[in-house]
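Researcher: For the annotation table, I need structure tokens for DUF4278 domain-containing protein. Please keep the output clean. Sequence:
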Amino acid sequence: MQLRFLGAEYDCQWPNIETRDGEVTGKYRGVVWSAKHHSATVAPTTPVTLRFMGRSYQGQV
């Protein structure tokens, strides 16, 4: 995914998170509402060089 802010462009790769449907929690206006459970894996972060008002700095994505 390519992001742009105030003319500066950034590349970003979002991690894939596995989810599975849980039990039905209830209904809201006739629509079934269920919980989702996320996997417990943590994606490693990568350092990126960002720029703010002409100054570069390191950030974690």
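Researcher: And a one-line annotation?
Model: The first strand starts at residue 2 and ends at 5.
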